[in-house]
Fold these 2 entries.
Entry 1:
Amino acid sequence: MIVGCYTLDLYCDNKPAHQYLWISDYMSDGKFPVQFIGERGCDCRQQARKAGWKLMRDGRALCPRCTGAKAGRDV
């Protein structure tokens, strides 16, 4: 049986809120990257949106803190 898997690792692209963090800071503080795992890409994006992430068509993403969204609410 062949099983497909997709992972989506998200970092927040909001420069003013996270401008002083380097990639190593993102990883060491435990906040980023946020990883979503699913069978298809659309499953991962749906999980991210339910967690409060805003995903834009140009590839940018905003974390729940920057969007003001609460986890568990569709955005």
Entry 2:
Amino acid sequence: MALVLLLCGAMSDTPSEYQVKAVFVYNFSHFVEWPSRSFPVANAPFAIGIVGADPFGTRLEEAIRGERINDHPLVLRRFQDASGIEDCQILFIDRSQAKRLDEILASLDHRSVLTVSELDGAAERGVMIQFAMKENRIRLRINPQSARAAGLVISSQLLRLADIVNSSVER
């Protein structure tokens, strides 16, 4: 996570909330292991998706521009709703999708997609990583149970930085 601090410092003297969150989303790709079946071909893109409104503006695109995860170029994909979600490795679920959260998670069932959101209570509902504000700082709430069910392994380094929660619903 030192990389997060370094990148945030390079962005500006005082990075915005969404600059920090964009760098976190990018860095999750370094602290999570996906099964090899997550990539249909060896050089397939590593896709970060956003479903609903895009709160990042250009910040997430700037954070991933020119980057690669192993042999996979990073790409950004935007989806309007659950029915249009294509293959991606990380999916940010925007606040605008609060009423559709269960539908989105159900559409990803048995797929190795790291889900990220800032919706209150998202981790308890099955989202793998939730951004939460506490004392004007971004905190992570991680649901390792949901990650394991999707075949993902979250690094112990990332888990140590987070509050660990369990799903209140069974999937």
